[in-house]
Amino acid sequence: GKQPTPTWLSIEDAAEHCARGIGRWDWASTDTDEPDVVLACAGDVPTVEALAAASLLREHLPDVRVRVVNVVDLMRLQHESQHPHGLSDRHYDALFTTDRPVVFAFHGYPWLIHRLTYKRAGHRHLQVRGYTEEGTTTTPFDMLVRNDLDRFHLVMDVIDRLPGIGGRAVDVRQQMVDARHRHRR
Prior knowledge:
The protein is α/β, with parallel strands linked by helices. Helices cover 41% and strands 13% of the residues.
Protein backbone atom coordinates (compact mmCIF):
# COMPACT_ATOMS: atom_id res chain seq x y z
CA GLY A 1 0.00 0.00 0.00
CA LYS A 2 0.85 3.66 -0.02
CA GLN A 3 0.86 4.04 3.75
CA PRO A 4 2.67 2.15 6.50
CA THR A 5 0.56 -0.66 7.93
CA PRO A 6 0.82 -2.78 11.06
CA THR A 7 2.81 -5.99 11.01
CA TRP A 8 0.75 -8.67 12.74
CA LEU A 9 3.03 -11.68 12.28
CA SER A 10 6.73 -12.41 12.10
CA ILE A 11 8.01 -13.15 8.59
CA GLU A 12 8.14 -16.87 9.40
CA ASP A 13 4.62 -16.91 10.86
CA ALA A 14 3.31 -14.83 7.94
CA ALA A 15 4.81 -17.23 5.40
CA GLU A 16 3.24 -20.19 7.21
CA HIS A 17 -0.13 -18.42 7.53
CA CYS A 18 -0.15 -17.48 3.83
CA ALA A 19 0.77 -21.03 2.86
CA ARG A 20 -2.19 -22.32 4.92
CA GLY A 21 -4.42 -19.57 3.50
CA ILE A 22 -6.52 -19.36 6.66
CA GLY A 23 -5.96 -19.56 10.37
CA ARG A 24 -6.93 -18.69 13.87
CA TRP A 25 -4.91 -15.87 15.38
CA ASP A 26 -4.45 -17.03 18.95
CA TRP A 27 -2.67 -13.83 19.97
CA ALA A 28 -5.77 -11.78 19.08
CA SER A 29 -8.33 -14.29 20.38
CA THR A 30 -9.70 -14.64 23.90
CA ASP A 31 -11.22 -18.11 23.61
CA THR A 32 -9.25 -21.07 24.88
CA ASP A 33 -11.46 -23.76 23.37
CA GLU A 34 -15.03 -22.80 22.46
CA PRO A 35 -15.69 -19.21 21.40
CA ASP A 36 -18.88 -17.28 22.02
CA VAL A 37 -18.34 -15.53 18.70
CA VAL A 38 -15.96 -15.69 15.74
CA LEU A 39 -14.59 -12.48 14.24
CA ALA A 40 -13.30 -13.36 10.78
CA CYS A 41 -11.56 -11.06 8.34
CA ALA A 42 -10.12 -10.97 4.84
CA GLY A 43 -8.22 -8.01 3.45
CA ASP A 44 -5.85 -5.52 5.01
CA VAL A 45 -8.32 -2.83 6.11
CA PRO A 46 -11.03 -5.27 7.32
CA THR A 47 -8.34 -7.07 9.33
CA VAL A 48 -7.44 -3.81 11.08
CA GLU A 49 -11.13 -3.25 11.89
CA ALA A 50 -11.72 -6.82 13.08
CA LEU A 51 -8.69 -6.61 15.37
CA ALA A 52 -9.87 -3.24 16.66
CA ALA A 53 -13.33 -4.75 17.28
CA ALA A 54 -11.72 -7.66 19.17
CA SER A 55 -9.82 -5.12 21.27
CA LEU A 56 -13.03 -3.18 22.02
CA LEU A 57 -14.76 -6.41 23.03
CA ARG A 58 -11.84 -7.30 25.34
CA GLU A 59 -12.07 -3.86 26.91
CA HIS A 60 -15.85 -3.56 27.27
CA LEU A 61 -17.04 -7.20 27.45
CA PRO A 62 -14.05 -9.16 28.77
CA ASP A 63 -16.09 -12.29 29.50
CA VAL A 64 -17.05 -12.72 25.82
CA ARG A 65 -14.81 -15.38 24.30
CA VAL A 66 -13.76 -14.14 20.86
CA ARG A 67 -11.96 -16.17 18.21
CA VAL A 68 -10.22 -14.20 15.46
CA VAL A 69 -9.84 -16.00 12.12
CA ASN A 70 -7.89 -14.41 9.28
CA VAL A 71 -8.45 -15.53 5.69
CA VAL A 72 -5.81 -14.99 3.02
CA ASP A 73 -7.08 -17.49 0.41
CA LEU A 74 -10.85 -17.14 -0.02
CA MET A 75 -11.04 -20.53 -1.71
CA ARG A 76 -10.26 -22.10 1.67
CA LEU A 77 -13.86 -21.22 2.61
CA GLN A 78 -15.21 -23.63 0.00
CA HIS A 79 -15.55 -27.34 0.59
CA GLU A 80 -12.62 -29.45 -0.55
CA SER A 81 -14.89 -31.15 -3.10
CA GLN A 82 -15.55 -27.76 -4.73
CA HIS A 83 -12.02 -26.38 -4.93
CA PRO A 84 -8.50 -27.81 -4.50
CA HIS A 85 -7.79 -25.27 -1.74
CA GLY A 86 -11.09 -25.93 0.03
CA LEU A 87 -11.36 -27.16 3.61
CA SER A 88 -13.05 -30.31 4.79
CA ASP A 89 -16.16 -29.78 6.93
CA ARG A 90 -14.18 -30.91 9.97
CA HIS A 91 -11.46 -28.28 9.46
CA TYR A 92 -13.92 -25.52 8.56
CA ASP A 93 -16.12 -26.29 11.59
CA ALA A 94 -13.07 -26.35 13.86
CA LEU A 95 -12.31 -22.76 12.85
CA PHE A 96 -15.79 -21.27 12.52
CA THR A 97 -17.92 -23.63 14.66
CA THR A 98 -21.34 -24.88 13.59
CA ASP A 99 -23.50 -22.98 16.04
CA ARG A 100 -21.84 -19.70 17.04
CA PRO A 101 -22.26 -16.27 15.47
CA VAL A 102 -19.62 -15.40 12.89
CA VAL A 103 -19.08 -11.73 12.02
CA PHE A 104 -16.94 -11.57 8.88
CA ALA A 105 -15.23 -8.32 7.80
CA PHE A 106 -14.47 -8.51 4.08
CA HIS A 107 -12.85 -6.14 1.57
CA GLY A 108 -15.31 -6.98 -1.20
CA TYR A 109 -18.98 -7.68 -1.75
CA PRO A 110 -20.57 -9.66 1.12
CA TRP A 111 -22.45 -11.97 -1.27
CA LEU A 112 -19.14 -13.54 -2.33
CA ILE A 113 -18.45 -14.89 1.17
CA HIS A 114 -22.02 -16.15 1.37
CA ARG A 115 -21.63 -17.95 -1.97
CA LEU A 116 -18.41 -19.60 -0.85
CA THR A 117 -19.89 -20.80 2.45
CA TYR A 118 -23.57 -21.43 1.74
CA LYS A 119 -23.30 -25.21 2.17
CA ARG A 120 -21.45 -25.00 5.49
CA ALA A 121 -23.19 -26.12 8.69
CA GLY A 122 -22.97 -22.74 10.40
CA HIS A 123 -23.91 -20.59 7.40
CA ARG A 124 -27.10 -19.30 9.00
CA HIS A 125 -24.98 -17.78 11.79
CA LEU A 126 -22.81 -15.82 9.33
CA GLN A 127 -22.99 -12.01 9.12
CA VAL A 128 -20.72 -10.50 6.46
CA ARG A 129 -19.77 -6.84 6.43
CA GLY A 130 -18.19 -5.59 3.24
CA TYR A 131 -18.45 -3.18 0.36
CA THR A 132 -21.98 -1.84 -0.20
CA GLU A 133 -21.12 0.92 -2.68
CA GLU A 134 -21.57 3.68 -0.14
CA GLY A 135 -19.02 6.43 -0.27
CA THR A 136 -17.56 9.46 -1.88
CA THR A 137 -14.23 11.24 -1.88
CA THR A 138 -13.44 11.01 1.80
CA THR A 139 -11.11 9.36 4.31
CA PRO A 140 -10.53 5.61 4.34
CA PHE A 141 -12.10 5.30 7.81
CA ASP A 142 -15.14 7.28 6.69
CA MET A 143 -15.56 4.79 3.83
CA LEU A 144 -15.61 2.01 6.44
CA VAL A 145 -18.29 3.81 8.45
CA ARG A 146 -20.39 4.51 5.33
CA ASN A 147 -20.24 0.81 4.40
CA ASP A 148 -20.94 -0.42 7.98
CA LEU A 149 -17.56 -2.14 8.02
CA ASP A 150 -16.05 -0.11 10.86
CA ARG A 151 -14.94 -1.55 14.22
CA PHE A 152 -17.93 -0.05 16.02
CA HIS A 153 -20.42 -1.73 13.71
CA LEU A 154 -18.57 -5.05 14.04
CA VAL A 155 -18.89 -4.84 17.84
CA MET A 156 -22.61 -4.02 17.44
CA ASP A 157 -22.98 -7.08 15.18
CA VAL A 158 -21.39 -9.28 17.85
CA ILE A 159 -23.69 -7.89 20.54
CA ASP A 160 -26.78 -8.27 18.32
CA ARG A 161 -25.96 -11.88 17.45
CA LEU A 162 -24.65 -13.22 20.74
CA PRO A 163 -27.45 -14.97 22.61
CA GLY A 164 -27.71 -14.28 26.31
CA ILE A 165 -25.58 -11.15 26.32
CA GLY A 166 -28.73 -9.09 26.92
CA GLY A 167 -28.69 -6.16 29.31
CA ARG A 168 -25.02 -6.31 30.20
CA ALA A 169 -24.11 -5.08 26.70
CA VAL A 170 -26.74 -2.34 26.28
CA ASP A 171 -24.35 0.40 27.41
CA VAL A 172 -21.51 -0.95 25.29
CA ARG A 173 -23.74 -1.07 22.20
CA GLN A 174 -24.83 2.52 22.82
CA GLN A 175 -21.18 3.58 23.14
CA MET A 176 -20.54 2.07 19.70
CA VAL A 177 -23.58 3.87 18.23
CA ASP A 178 -22.37 7.13 19.80
CA ALA A 179 -18.87 6.62 18.39
CA ARG A 180 -20.33 6.22 14.89
CA HIS A 181 -22.43 9.38 15.36
CA ARG A 182 -19.40 11.34 16.59
CA HIS A 183 -17.49 10.24 13.51
CA ARG A 184 -20.29 11.25 11.15
CA ARG A 185 -20.49 14.69 12.75
